[in-house]
Amino acid sequence: MTTNTRAYAATSATSPLTPYRFNRRNPRNDDVVIDILYCGVCHSDLHTARNDWGWSSYPIVPGHEIVGRVTSVGADVTRFKVGDHVGVGCMVDSCGHCPACAHGDEQHCAEGSTFTYGGIDRVDGSMTQGGYSDQIIVKQEFVVRVPDGLDLKGAAPLLCAGITTWSPLKNWHVVAGSKVAVVGLGGLGHMAIKLAKAMGADVTLFTRSAGKEDDARRLGADHIVLSTDDAQMAEVAGRFDLIVDTVPYAHDTNPYIPTLNYGGTLVLVGYLGPLEPALNSMPMVLGRKAVAGSLIGGIAATQEMLDFCGEHGITADIEVIRMEEINDAYERMLKSDVKYRFVIDMASLKEAA
């Protein structure tokens, strides 16, 4: 029996999100049914709602930073029980057998991972709908456990912003004493600073805006470099093992390459598209430096990240909003008017119904 679900949805690229009802698919034997408590608001939600990437189908319910409580489980579910606090991130399925999936990198599934919203269910062909809703049904392999004691509201953004920044820190082997820089102080950047600091790294924030020093230090940054100041940039030449670039729009990456150590890497996690101006390969070739990209992380890595956050008491800095405030939140997000992630209290959706 399908489940009637309350939500907020975009019905076109130009219309605001509005209340919406739809039927979730039937729970299967390997499914977990989750009552959604909180859902973070990601730039990807806005891009999808407004069809900025050209693939959106409407109506669509955004939301992929989901924390909730298990209300029922299928007959074959062994990982979770009713009452557990769990999370769902950007994916709800993958092929499970390609080399990427076998390696635990379901986000790079050769057949294409099934995204939490706007994806196509691999069993019945229906379109997936996300976490701006009162409940969600997800197969157990794509559900993660939220550690006891971790604030549920602040944990929601870990399901995207957290894993997006954790993944490059782990894949490029950040350890105690590593020199890590973060470009940009927003939803992703503030998580990159917190996580890198907890790993024992020496952390620097690159920013174009003066006046962020106090906040950056509060989050864990050891140093702040104004990237528009040539003298400050020259002082950190050859310093960094890893730079995590969280800027979500086209920008000039060339000034950061000289600040990499021999063999260092700049990893793009915030921007999809061509770099403008073009990347100058000379300092990369001469210094064996690299520019790479990283996409979220696999399910095992996401659980590892959550467990690490539980051990270190790490959550996102958030502003809690009601569901009906989502359109205003989108406009504020475009102006970077949030420190540092909006989280929707889904009780407000249930109260309004």
Radius of gyration over C-alpha positions, nearest whole angstrom: 20 Å
Helix- and strand-based class? alpha/beta
The share of residues in helices is 10-25%
- The outline comes out as globular
Topology:
Layout: E1 3-9, E2 18-24, E3 31-40, H1 43-49, E4 66-73, E5 85-88, E6 91-93, H2 99-102, E7 114-115, E8 135-139, E9 144-145, H3 152-155, H4 161-171, E10 179-183, H5 187-198, E11 202-207, H6 213-219, E12 223-226, H7 230-235, E13 240-245, E14 260-268, H8 282-287, E15 290-293, H9 299-312, E16 318-322, H10 326-334, E17 341-345, H11 347-352
Parallel strand pairs: 10-11, 10-13, 11-12, 13-14, 14-15, 16-17
Antiparallel strand pairs: 1-2, 3-4, 3-8, 3-17, 4-5, 5-9, 6-7
Helix pairs in contact: 4-5, 4-9
Describe the structure.
This protein folds into two domains: 3-160 and 317-352, Medium-chain alcohol dehydrogenases, catalytic domain (Quinone Oxidoreductase, Chain A, domain 1), CATH 3.90.180.10; 162-293, 3-Layer(aba) Sandwich (Rossmann fold). The model has no long low-confidence stretch (mean pLDDT 96). The protein is α/β, with parallel strands linked by helices and 353 residues long. It has helices at residues 43-49, 99-102, 152-155, 161-171, 187-198, 213-219, 230-235, 282-287, 299-312, 326-334, 347-352, and strands spanning 3-9, 18-24, 31-40, 66-73, 85-88, 91-93, 114-115, 135-139, 144-145, 179-183, 202-207, 223-226, 240-245, 260-268, 290-293, 318-322, 341-345.
